[in-house]
Amino acid sequence: MITIKTEKLSRKFGDLVAVDDLNLEVEEGEIFGLVGPDGAGKTTTMRLLTGILEPTDGQAWVYNKHTVKEAEPLKENIAYMSQRFGLYEELTVLENINFYADVYGVAKDKRQESIERLLGFSGLLPFKARFAGKLSGGMKQKLGLACALIHTPRVLFLDEPTNGVDPVSRRDFWKILYDLLKEKVTIFCSTCYLDEAERCRRVGLMHKGKLLRCESPERIKKEYNAKTLEEAFITIIKEYESK
Hints:
The protein is α/β, with parallel strands linked by helices. It has two domains: 165 residues, P-loop containing nucleotide triphosphate hydrolases (Rossmann fold, 3-Layer(aba) Sandwich); 65 residues, no CATH class. Helices cover 37% and strands 26% of the residues. It has a six-stranded mixed beta sheet with strand order 6-7-8-3-9-10, sandwiched between helices. Helix 3 packs parallel to helix 5, helix 4 packs antiparallel against helix 5 and helix 5 runs parallel beside helix 6. The longest helix is centred in the middle third of the chain and has 15 residues. The model has no long low-confidence stretch (mean pLDDT 94).
């Protein structure tokens, strides 16, 4: 099943083309990684796919919902954890999760089991009474993920979720993501860490709004005779710039 599909998706801001003619398909239960330099168009792509922005041209569907014509019902099936996901530092871990349960309209008599599962799932159960402002960076990211998952979305969008997080917390965060795959959740993740991109089933390289390459990490490295994705991507960008 194709969970995310775009057709000639584009977005302009004045004369700046942030996303340029994007054609992409992502399958159900896949971790797809979107990588590229700052300003490549990754965050704009996320905002288009989640219905926050409308495209200048083209169209997109997520979980069989058109991102413009069906923006409201789309929200029931997706979660978007942005780079500035809003945690309330004066609230405890448990209070933050309950707050987002209210935001997403999760009935009070049906949320307790989900909350307990998410606290255990994220390793936050021993810290449920701790104020969010007292958590480490890695724990805040786990709490943000738990809040995003409270309404059981089928598609999860993560915009550089481990940026600035220590290596151990990054490893733990990715373990949680792999556990989500067992539930057939589709994960669309942008990252600035190319070692993390290696963990994805497929990766897309964006540069100046263009999707230059989309394939499994192993195939990309093999095609460019590269030891790492970084080495391969530098070659791909140089080839694009030389045209």
